[in-house]
Amino acid sequence: MPLSANSVVVLDFETTGLSPNMGDRAIEIGAVKLLNGEVADTFQQLMNPGFRVSSFIERYTGISNNMLRTAPSCAEVMREFASFVGQSNMVAHNASFDKRFLDAELLPLGIEYQGQFACSMLIARRLYQDAPTHKLGDLVRYKNIEHDGVFHRALADSEMTAKLWMVMLQELQTRGVMEPEFAFMQKIAKTSKSALDSLIGKQARLARV
Predict the structure, then answer these.
(1) At what angle do helices 120-127 and 95-106 cross, to 10 degrees?
(2) Which residues contact 40 (CB under 8 A, 6 or more apart)?
(3) How far is CA 176 from CA 34, 158, 200, in A?
(4) What is the rounded end-to-end Cα distance, in angstroms, of the chain?
(5) What is the torsional sign of CA 121, 126, 128, 132?
(6) Is this structure's pTM higher than 0.85?
(7) How is the chain split among helix, strand and coil, in percent rounded to 5?
(8) Residue range 90-147, pLDDT digits in tens
(9) Which domains does the chain show, CATH number per domain?
């Protein structure tokens, strides 16, 4: 399993609602595989949840019931995605949401993944405390990250999250944290805002030893 934070799978789900515990299902997954900070591969697939989605979700995502009617089943897509991820660590914006749906879709298939999750939203809250909000679109505009204006489609959002992730890694490098490990990014997400400078300073000093 890659330890470096610049070799990860960045993923995003579009879903029928907010909670698999309430019967909601995934309807699209998009992912970007980063290897040494470069895009090595992408994954995108609609999936048929087995029931009609609401008109609100159709409008919000741009994914219609007609599009889903001919899409493969969630089980088929998630088997393919598990192979795509392999043993990689994973990143998502608001990762607790995506992890819930990943777990819910893989559990019936008896598939377990080896990698861990990091949340780009929580990390951005620590690194960009002056951002107006920490929604993905607002952070992309705040950091002047190039984008095509498409949001709430899985591959577009995972591509934007991957770009944001690399911007955050580059900014840590300017503060002396060269090629941080994935575990360090997880630690940032759990560190209080007031303790962040101390954490980064300590890590930078260790990097110089």
Answers:
(1) 170
(2) 33, 34
(3) 22, 27, 8
(4) 25
(5) positive
(6) yes
(7) 50, 20, 35
(8) 999 999 999 999 999 999 999 999 999 999 999 999 999 999 999 999 999 999 998 7
(9) 8-207 (3.30.420.10)
